[in-house]
Write a sequence for this structure.
């Protein structure tokens, strides 16, 4: 699947296109398919996000897993500071990245 | 240390106001990202993997207690309670919000700090010896000249759009503690045969994807021509440096391709021309700057101290250095903690509380000065030996007393793929695994400088490590190449790749096997690097790859 990611203009936070807006959680990402370029053009023009681009990913049940490790690090947060990641209570969260 | 005059302050304040307006226009949608991006980068604001990152300049690594304290307060007020000290003697914050950045810059301006020219193709922060003004082996304090270069290079209209970024280092000791010859321009202040003080210029060094050691292009430049000669070096680069290919745009490529002799010839011609133009700052300006760097009021004190506490004695032996005044010591604060209670440290990171503790120690015990080192540690340059035990106790209480300076666990590591959008592999988890592996045995290996970069840009100085590690992307998987034999010191050399790379666990095992070869072949007081240079790569390769 093709998912769209960007950074929030104000906070810089990593966000994922969920079909209606932007989510902090990669699992909310939808397959943008052929609409990815249009989503990027519209959203960047609206000045809500910056640096939007398309990422390859795979869905496994409720989980969306970006293909490349860099995007998985972006999705989770720094593996060396899981307390600052999106899953601070999960000490094994870093394994999802690797 | 240097204090701003009204011109310095006015320039920084004006820049804050300008960026506040630019940010407002961006947030209101009047400026596109394409238009805004170069503006924010000129103020040190990057967009990294997880958020905006702000890089704050620390000129030649020197800070007052008040400045250090503010860095801690910024970490609490605007970030997530910590900061990252970098290999260019700066500090970075990883979780900055765009809308708050003008306020951060305004806070910095109140203590004479800024983030100008910490990004972009301009002259970056001038770096220097972290022991400047304190070292027993120093000819003179190099910082007045570093400050003169800072003022010359700040907003210099001709050098704000160079072919590529440009890094200058100034030292004044035979011992190179600042990787001087791995800079675009390395300046060593020297004494000539007539007894005069001047500057030796090394031009065209650097790390990155094409590491090069800067050749000496002039043995002696009179100090009252320092800026003129620097300007000549930059002008030739600005005229001929490549702008068509960013990977070939650094001055090291120009000097290499043009040849050091031809580059020098052109610099000398430009220098002769510039001498007729009267561009050197007046001597009065250098004297004004130098007045800020006179020695503090050292007092007499017995050099002997009570070393009956073994932990204190170990720390004194590992983390203090000889001061030029017998009653004082230079204190190194390691930001490379060993694992404790299951917690791992991160090279160069310090919490807001730790930063404030170091600020207080600087104020109370080091004439209100501290320094950031390129090895991502902090220095208190002037501590009375009689105060060392009290300082150590405060460092212990703040988890800042790890006695491992220049040992295998004193690792330089870039932020890597955990934070950096350029990185191909993570650096910090590898540093943590190596630290854990050598926590008990590392001290016995003596001086062994290990440096890790998460990509070819080499912010972790892997080329200059006695042991270097380069993280690469191998078909979407992290892979780590091992290098041996690098050095950033006066015995500068570039490490050589051992062979095929390793995964995250494999690289730790390979390093352990390399240290076993060292231990087996070591003669007398040889360091790892000395043994490597004597016996060569083969025994290491054999042990590493079996």
């Amino acid at each position: 699947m093709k998912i769209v990611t960007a950074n929030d203009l104000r906070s810089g936070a990593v966000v994922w296109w969920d079909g209606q807006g932007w989510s902090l959680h990669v699992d909310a990402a939808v397959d943008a398919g052929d609409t990815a370029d249009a989503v990027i053009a519209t959203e960047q023009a609206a000045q809500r996000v910056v640096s939007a681009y398309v990422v390859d990913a795979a869905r496994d049940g409720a989980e969306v897993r970006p293909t490349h490790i860099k995007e998985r690090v972006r999705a989770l947060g720094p593996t060396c500071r899981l307390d600052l990641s999106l899953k601070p209570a999960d000490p094994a969260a870093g394994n999802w990245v690797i | 240390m240097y204090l701003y005059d009204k011109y310095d302050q006015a320039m920084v304040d004006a820049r804050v106001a300008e960026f506040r307006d630019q940010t407002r226009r961006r947030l209101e949608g009047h400026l596109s990202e394409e238009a805004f991006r170069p503006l924010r980068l000129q103020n040190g604001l990057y967009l990294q993997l997880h958020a905006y990152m702000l890089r704050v300049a620390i000129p030649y690594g020197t800070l007052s207690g008040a400045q250090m304290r503010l860095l801690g307060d910024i970490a609490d007020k605007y970030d997530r309670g910590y900061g990252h000290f970098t290999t260019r003697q700066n500090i970075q914050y990883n979780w900055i919000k765009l809308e708050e950045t003008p306020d951060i810059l305004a806070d910095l301006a109140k203590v004479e700090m800024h983030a100008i020219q910490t990004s972009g193709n301009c002259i970056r922060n001038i770096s220097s010896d972290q022991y400047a003004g304190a070292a027993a082996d120093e000819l003179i304090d190099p910082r007045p000249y570093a400050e003169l270069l800072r003022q010359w290079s700040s907003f210099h209209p001709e050098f704000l759009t160079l072919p590529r970024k440009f890094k200058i280092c100034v030292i004044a000791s035979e011992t190179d503690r600042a990787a001087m010859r791995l800079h675009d321009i390395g300046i060593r202040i020297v004494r000539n045969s007539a007894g005069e003080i001047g500057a030796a210029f090394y031009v065209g060094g650097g790390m990155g994807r094409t590491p090069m050691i800067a050749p000496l292009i002039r043995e002696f430049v009179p100090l009252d021509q320092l800026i003129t000669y620097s300007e000549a070096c930059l002008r030739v680069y600005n005229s001929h440096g490549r702008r068509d290919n960013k990977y070939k745009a650094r001055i090291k490529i120009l000097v290499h391709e043009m040849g050091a002799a031809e580059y020098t010839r052109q610099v000398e011609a430009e220098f002769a021309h510039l001498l007729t133009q009267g561009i050197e700052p007046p001597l009065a300006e250098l004297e004004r700057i130098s007045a800020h760097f006179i020695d503090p009021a050292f007092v007499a004190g017995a050099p002997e101290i009570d070393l009956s506490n073994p932990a204190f004695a170990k720390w004194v032996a590992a983390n203090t250095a000889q001061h030029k005044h017998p009653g004082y010591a230079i204190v190194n604060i390691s930001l490379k903690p060993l694992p404790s209670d299951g917690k791992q440290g991160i090279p160069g990171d310090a919490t807001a509380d730790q930063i404030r503790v170091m600020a207080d120690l600087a104020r109370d015990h080091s004439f209100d000065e501290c320094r950031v080192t390129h090895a991502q540690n902090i220095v208190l340059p002037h501590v009375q030996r009689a105060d060392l035990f009290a300082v150590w106790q405060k460092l212990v209480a703040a988890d800042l007393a790890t006695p491992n300076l220049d040992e295998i666990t004193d690792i330089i590591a870039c932020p890597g793929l955990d934070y950096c959008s350029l990185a191909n592999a993570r650096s910090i988890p590898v540093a943590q695994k190596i630290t854990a592996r050598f926590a008990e045995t590392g001290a016995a290996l003596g001086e062994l400088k290990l440096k890790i970069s998460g990509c070819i840009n080499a912010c972790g100085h892997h080329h200059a490590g006695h042991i270097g590690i380069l993280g690469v992307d191998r078909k979407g998987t992290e892979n780590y190449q091992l290098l041996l034999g690098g050095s950033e010191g006066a015995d500068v050399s570039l490490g050589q790749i051992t062979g095929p790379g390793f995964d995250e666990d494999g690289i730790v095992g390979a390093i352990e096997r390399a240290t076993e070869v060292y231990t087996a072949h070591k003669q007398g007081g040889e360091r790892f690097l000395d043994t490597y240079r004597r016996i060569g790569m083969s025994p290491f390769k054999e042990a590493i790859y079996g």
Observations:
- The domain at 134-292 of chain B is CATH 3.30.413.10 (Sulfite Reductase Hemoprotein; domain 1).
